[in-house]
User: Which sequence fits this backbone?
């Protein structure tokens, strides 16, 4: 292996990690859209919490399927 291949391998790994972190942050931000917690009623807060939990679970499954797909190909 020459130096160029090693550098490319490292850059690809770093890029993949940064993109994955960005996607995760974006999914988390999208699951928290709406009013601030101070402005919500108790019912709205409970509903928002359950929706956020479902969104995070969905994101977790999406990450798992992404990892599985990457392993297959």
Assistant:
């Amino acid at each position: 292996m020459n130096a160029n291949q090693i550098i490319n391998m490292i850059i690809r790994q770093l890029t993949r990690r940064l993109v994955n972190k960005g996607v995760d942050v974006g999914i988390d931000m999208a699951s928290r859209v709406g009013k601030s917690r101070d402005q919500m009623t108790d019912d709205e807060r409970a509903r928002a919490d359950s929706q956020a939990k479902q969104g995070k679970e969905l994101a977790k499954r999406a990450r798992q399927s992404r990892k599985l797909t990457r392993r297959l190909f």
